Input
Amino acid sequence: MTHKPIRKAVFPVAGLGTRFLPATKAIPKEMLPVVDRPLIQYAVDEAREAEIEQMIFVTGRGKSAIEDHFDIAYELERTMTDRGKDISVLEPTRLGPGNCAYVRQQEPMGLGHAIWCARDIVGDEPFAIFLPDEFMHGSPGCMAQMVAEYEKTGGNLLSVLEVPREQVSSYGVIDPGAAQGKLTEVKGLVEKPKVEAAPSNLIISGRYILQPEVMRVLEHQGKGAGGEIQLTDAMAQMIGKQPFHAVTFDGARYDCGSKTGYIEANLAVALSRPDMADEVRAIAQRLVG
Ligand code: G1P
Output
């Protein structure tokens, strides 16, 4: 069976980033670099690797640096070219007009509401969602791995991973059914449960493939955990009506919404880069030794 391809991705990037203040007072948290690329760039690269064509950013006030990042920097490119400098490093930052769209979420009403803001651009086709502060590092990337599974199952897919049980209350948690290879059936979903009430320690790790019907559910979705309109609650209503699976990502995940996770991501990426791994390893050993 062939399923409708995933051509569009939604990036909710309207969050205030209060956990990284003062760094994020004047720049969006999605623009924080891991080594030399902003977090949002890694997410867009992961989408492109999965053959997604259109990037839809749900932004808010103070987030225009993201639009500038994916635009052509005319003066910069002109000056560098005139001076004989190589500008190929800028290539992945260029999203042509047909490949990106921006929509604003005017009030912080939750992740579900942010996704709903993109409904007209998503239209009537399945789409992906990327939460850029969940930094997924691996090859193939997390979304490419999910698309490979989607081609078998269709329907809705989430990326999941195991966390220590005491951490589940910070996340969306799945109630797992039968598992086969990388795929696990999703029987239930709950956003930010109490540790005692959590159906498992498998958390949603910020990558989704969803059917467009979720937009209709979101339209009527009331407030959930934290008084916000939760994507997890809307997805939970689709279980039983459409296929719903979780994919365990074969790779590393860094929680760049936390300071220590962000430092870990920088160190891990630096240690994986041939241009700096040896030097960074020596520095790390000196600092801890
Ligand atoms: C969001 C989702 C949650 C998911 C998490 C991953 O929560 O609502 O289900 O597990 O991202 O980081 P937030 O981090 O916005 O509170």
Remarks:
- The CA atoms of residues 56 and 121 lie 8 Å apart.
